[in-house]
């Protein structure tokens, strides 16, 4: 298969809602205009909550209404709308309504919200251009998996991308849903066998077949930190279907990163130390015969040239897009991040404790955010969203959930170990706050937590002074200038 049918540049998925439909659409349509193959990727992580909160804000701009009007089964979209929409927006300072947590057995109203939200985000990203749109999920967050994929597929998503775990179950789900047949997904449950708890979803039980019928099977790109994992996922005996490509991502990338093979070594700042075995060998990637993209500090035209010379189909970039005008990151946070990056004062720490997922998480150090110990100490531990909870098997054989960031005594009562709670932060609330959807509690508003890649040198090629701003198209022109003429 020739590389010419694949994107040269992928704007990586950035949760929660940093890579929103506006950003993904800007990337895909600017590529379309420049005549370069670029793919915009929306983040599907927690998108149900994002849409429910935007509806409670009165659906600014009326975008969700437009997307819901395009949903093939209008009765269902109307139910979701009626459940969450607040005309004119909820009063400022009033908390958002809490959303039932997504558990092993899905409630129908929650499934409907997730399907409609994933549909809306992809549908909006696809309007007005012919470029490809992908959706990104984290393997670790499994309970909403089936309705989220279904919603994205109903909107015609071109590619599903998934990392933060071993996403071997996804390709089979795409095949099943494309045929509009029931699919299942085994939930990882501590203390249980790997095939003990299958989650199942019959698409027709949510959206009757007469409204949809067969769906197009999107491509599936797995995000991997090593070629060993890519080799594993290329073996048809290991996966439920075809993995169509790989994003090979190094540990300097924004967001979560795979821990190093040797988990015992830390530097003076407490960051995990990566060794030779934690790298991707492009030669081994080439041998797999599938397209791959390199990610993690590739936001430079020269790096793109190097990646192509190594046999990659292109690169995936995140941070350069997180800091552009269209991204969902709060405007004041973006401004401060650009300013610090411009002064070369931006510090990003690979924090191996903060994420309840247990994966190292790159955290930008900013005052007034969760990285600011004093500000964060004022927070009371609470788990009211629950996306990063771990499932475990109880003594009676049932499934229960616990989160290392929840109140410590609750976590211990649920059989968790105290040492697992140390240094943990509530990423669900922190990431929602970073995109302007903070929950209000009696002690105050949830603080943002900001993730970014370790390399922001690109900023000096994009802005002339520390107050400068740039768009996704500016970033693409910078990254692709030469390639847009040579490669098409
Ligand atoms: C703010 C932010 C959030 C991210 N969130 C996710 C995510 O939810 N899922 C994911 O697979 N990758 C995530 N990433 C990684 C990006 O998709 C991309 O691979 C990475 O940023 C590339 O490295 P770079 O930032 O050096 O360009 C995130 C990156 C950033 C900057």
How many independent structural domains? 1
> Helices and strands: which structural class?
alpha/beta
Ligand names: flavin mononucleotide
Q: Within the largest sheet, what's the order of strands?
A: 1-2-3-4-8-9-10-11
Instruction: State the name of the first-level CATH class.
Output: Alpha Beta
Number of strands: 17
What key phrases describe this protein's structure?
single chain; 488 residues; alpha/beta; TIM Barrel; 8-stranded parallel barrel; 3-stranded mixed beta sheet; binds flavin mononucleotide
Topology (SSEs and partners):
Layout: E1 9-11, H1 21-34, E2 38-43, H2 47-56, H3 63-70, H4 74-84, H5 108-126, E3 133-138, H6 145-154, E4 159-163, H7 170-178, E5 183-186, E6 189-190, E7 198-201, H8 203-206, H9 209-212, E8 219-224, H10 227-234, E9 245-249, H11 282-287, E10 292-295, H12 301-309, E11 314-317, H13 319-322, H14 331-342, E12 348-351, E13 361-364, H15 373-377, E14 390-393, E15 399-402, H16 408-413, H17 427-434, E16 440-441, E17 444-445, H18 459-462, H19 472-486
Parallel strand pairs: 1-2, 1-11, 2-3, 3-4, 4-8, 6-14, 8-9, 9-10, 10-11
Antiparallel strand pairs: 5-7, 12-13, 14-15, 16-17
The site of flavin mononucleotide has 29 residues, from β3, β11 and α13.
Structure, described:
The chain is α/β, with parallel strands linked by helices. The protein has a single domain, classed as Aldolase class I (TIM Barrel). It has an 8-stranded parallel beta barrel, surrounded by 6 helices. A 3-stranded mixed β-sheet has the order 6-14-15, with no helix packed on it. The structure holds flavin mononucleotide. The site of flavin mononucleotide has 29 residues, from β3, β11 and α13.
